[in-house]
Amino acid sequence: MSGLAIATLLMNQTLEVNRGYATALNTVVSLAAQAASSAAAGPTFERFGSSTPLAAVGCIAATAGLLLYGMLAGRQAALPELDD
Fold it and tell me: Hey, which of 10, 14, 22, 69 has its CA 20 to 30 A from 76?
């Protein structure tokens, strides 16, 4: 899921008065995760080659997708109604 979609889900669940704080915190967490994964990727690729780290990244992505699906199960997204 893209960062924009995650931000939209976050903003739909956040009170309007707290949206600035939620956006800032989302950005900090996202950038920190990217920095940590970049720092870990170099030595990992050097030590194990490319196939093992890429398989691990695929497993992490699949797990994240399943967790998001599980957390959103039973919730129906609030979509605006379109006028005809």
Answer: 22
Gap between the Cα atoms of 71 and 84, Å rounded: 33
pTM: 0.62
Helix 51-72 vs helix 19-48: crossing angle, to nearest 10: 150
pLDDT in tens, 14-49: 888 988 998 899 889 989 999 998 999 889 999 999
CA nearest neighbour of 22 among 1, 6, 2: 6
Name, in order, each residue with C-beta under 8 angstroms of 22's C-beta and a sequence gap of 6 or more: 10, 11, 14
Of 19, 26, 28, which Cα lies nearest the Cα of 4? Answer: 26
Q: Are 22 and 14 in contact (CB under 8 A)?
A: yes
